[in-house]
Amino acid sequence: MSEAARFASRSGIAEIEETDAFAPKFSSDGLIPAIAVDAASGDVLMFAWMNAEALQATLRTGEAHFYSRSRKRLWKKGESSGEVLEVERVLTDCDQDVILLQVVPQGRGAACHTGRRSCFYRKVKYENGAWKLEPVGAERLFDPALVYGKSDGTA
């Protein structure tokens, strides 16, 4: 994709749902939800936001890029940790308001900044009158303090 390539303009519902024009619907703050799944297993690895620049960078490079709302900037997944997500396929839903990335994790295979394979490593369950979290697939593939230099595990 060239730097000059633009997404199609959004028009009526039939055109959005049935044509071959890629016209992603960004929110009023310029973002679109993006879900990354393992291309081989289908497991959900992470959720993040993309702006138009991140989506274009992902399409152009074949590596997942996102927009950090907290840092207010574009970021390439794995730029600090080496845990790059190689994109095999980009899909969108019927309304073109969500992006689904089918990816092949690189590095140690951790998609989560906590060092885990997936950001979805806890299930919600009801126990003794309260909602609690139970670990599922919660083993760490790397120590975030060593990778990011912070003791709280934040990237």
Which features would summarize this protein structure in a list?
3 helices, alpha+beta, 4-stranded mixed beta sheet, Ubiquitin-like (UB roll), two-stranded antiparallel sheet, globular, 155 residues
Structural account:
The chain is of the alpha+beta class and 155 residues long. It has a domain at 13-114: Ubiquitin-like (UB roll) (Roll), CATH 3.10.20.810. The chain has three helices and eight strands. The protein has helices at residues 13-18, 52-61, 144-148, and strands spanning 32-38, 44-50, 65-68, 73-76, 85-92, 99-105, 122-127, 130-135. The strands form three sheets. A four-stranded mixed beta sheet has the order 2-1-6-5, with helices on one face. The mean pLDDT is 93.
As laid out across the biggest beta sheet, the strand order is 2-1-6-5
Rg calculated over all Cα atoms:
17 Å
The CATH architecture category of the domain at 13-114 equals Roll
Distance between the termini: 29 Å
Structural class: alpha+beta
